[in-house]
Design brief:
With 139 residues, this protein is mainly alpha-helical. Helices cover 88% and strands 0% of the residues. It folds into two domains: 1-61; 64-139, no CATH class.
């Protein structure tokens, strides 16, 4: 939504609205498919809003590491579904398969390292606050 005002200004500056209006008036097929386009366009907008909402909801209910892990798994699932739904697996070479595996393995490994780093920071802060509490009670 942030880019929408800039996009509208760009359309006015480049005279796109006038050209679109001329195209709509002359092309009968465009008039017939406008309703289908609007339905698909609204569905895409709804799905995008739902995706943003679900990511924010996941982050607020869990933590950023969980969202990151889910993002890695989602990307892997998208890759697999794309391969099979669009018949891309027929054109896959060993190099493409190795690339997908490397992407999954190191994406997961990076997320794991970030998780370990965060856990060690939490543990060290708990240890330091616990030692401060013990020192305060001794004094």
């Amino acid at each position: 939504m942030f880019a929408l005002p800039f996009l509208i200004i760009f359309f006015f500056v480049t005279n796109e609205f006038t050209e679109l209006g001329q195209y709509v008036q002359t092309d009968e097929q465009f008039k017939n498919s406008l309703f289908v386009f609007l339905i698909i366009f609204l569905a895409v907008i709804f799905c995008g809003c739902f995706l943003c909402f679900s990511q924010i909801w996941c982050t607020t209910n869990n933590n950023a590491i969980t969202t990151s892990v889910i993002g890695v798994l989602k990307s892997f699932l998208q890759t697999l579904l794309g391969l099979f739904f669009y018949d891309a697996y027929r054109n896959m070479t060993v190099l493409s398969f190795v690339g997908i595996l490397i992407n999954l393995a190191f994406g997961t490994y990076y997320t794991y390292l970030k998780y370990i780093e965060k856990e060690s920071r939490i543990q060290s802060s708990l240890n330091s606050s616990h030692s401060d509490t013990i020192n305060d009670t001794k004094a």
